[in-house]
């Protein structure tokens, strides 16, 4: 029966695409965004397969069509096992604004220097777009401001560098002690997406320091809250370095 076979075929194809996307991106066989696209296509096929499967199950209720019922059941179950957890994840992520560039200072954000050379697109504009991001960031995440430290800037820069070196998923790509600026590439675990991070230590009038930070994704439009979480957790790590808070989970 055609719907039963189609549901079963969709289930196998969805599994194959999701596996190919994850394995290909994780082991650097394909680009991260291509891996994510294959994953997303598999997800869409699982939804389609679930709908077709329900139709096939309904149609095979008649005795003369029972031959295709097992295929319909297996295909529907596989598709639902794929689709339902991902649907829940998508619904949960809908609370995040569709932005992927987060900063602690809207008016004078830290700017990237070396990261410009690492982009997929030559000449990609890495300037912060306040009109595009600021209001959405404020509405979606609330206040994300710099943190103030008692050390003078050069000493604080050394401590921040040491903290950044201790983050497993981070690689320092640029360091300028004369400007107390640090750039980092953060790599996600599953698809190995690369995000760019810049940290800048600024002096305060009283001789202390402000740690300003910006985290920007290279791919996509939204970021599922990853960049805002990264900044907050890094600040927690800095606070931990001066012994004031408990350890946090690994940074994204």
CATH topology type of the largest domain? TATA-Binding Protein
Spatial gap, N to C terminus: 47 Å
What's the number of structural domains? 2
Query: Percent range for helical residues?
Result: 40-55%
Radius of gyration: 23 Å
- Average pLDDT across residues? 93
List SSEs in N-to-C order: HHHEHEHEEEEH
The largest sheet is: 6 strands, antiparallel
| Overall strand count | 6
Write the layout of secondary structure elements.
Blueprint: H1 2-26, H2 32-59, H3 69-93, E1 101-103, H4 130-141, E2 147-149, H5 153-165, E3 170-176, E4 181-187, E5 194-203, E6 209-217, H6 226-241
Antiparallel strand pairs: 1-6, 2-6, 3-4, 4-5, 5-6
Description:
This protein has helices at residues 2-26, 32-59, 69-93, 130-141, 153-165, 226-241; strands at 101-103, 147-149, 170-176, 181-187, 194-203, 209-217. The chain is an alpha+beta fold and 252 residues long. The chain has 2 domains: 2-93; 101-241, Kinase associated domain 1, KA1 (TATA-Binding Protein). Strands 1, 2, 3, 4, 5 and 6 form a 6-stranded antiparallel β-sheet that branches. The longest helix has 28 residues, at 32-59.
């Amino acid at each position: 029966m055609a719907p039963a076979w189609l549901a079963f075929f969709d289930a196998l194809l969805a599994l194959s695409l999701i596996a190919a996307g994850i394995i290909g991106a994780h082991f650097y066989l394909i680009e991260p965004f291509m891996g994510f696209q294959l994953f997303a296509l598999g997800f869409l096929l699982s939804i389609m397969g679930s709908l077709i499967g329900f139709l096939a199950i309904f149609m095979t209720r008649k005795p003369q069509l029972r031959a295709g019922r097992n295929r319909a059941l297996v295909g529907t179950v596989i598709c639902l096992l794929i689709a339902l957890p991902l649907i829940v994840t998508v619904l949960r992520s809908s609370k995040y604004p569709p932005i992927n560039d987060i900063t602690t200072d809207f008016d004078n954000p830290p700017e990237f220097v070396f990261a410009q050379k690492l982009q997929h697109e030559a000449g990609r504009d890495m300037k912060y777009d306040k009109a595009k991001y600021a209001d959405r960031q404020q509405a979606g995440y609330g206040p994300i401001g710099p943190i103030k430290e008692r050390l003078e800037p050069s000493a604080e820069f050394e401590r921040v560098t040491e903290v950044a070196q201790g983050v497993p998923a981070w690689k320092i790509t640029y360091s300028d002690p004369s400007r107390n600026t640090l750039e980092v590439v953060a790599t996600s675990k599953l698809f190995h997406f690369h995000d760019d991070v810049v940290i800048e230590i600024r002096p305060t009038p009283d001789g202390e320091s402000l740690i300003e930070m910006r985290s920007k994704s290279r791919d996509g439009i939204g970021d599922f809250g990853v960049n805002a979480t990264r900044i907050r957790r890094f600040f927690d790590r800095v606070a931990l370095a001066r012994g004031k808070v408990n350890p946090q989970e690994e940074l994204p």
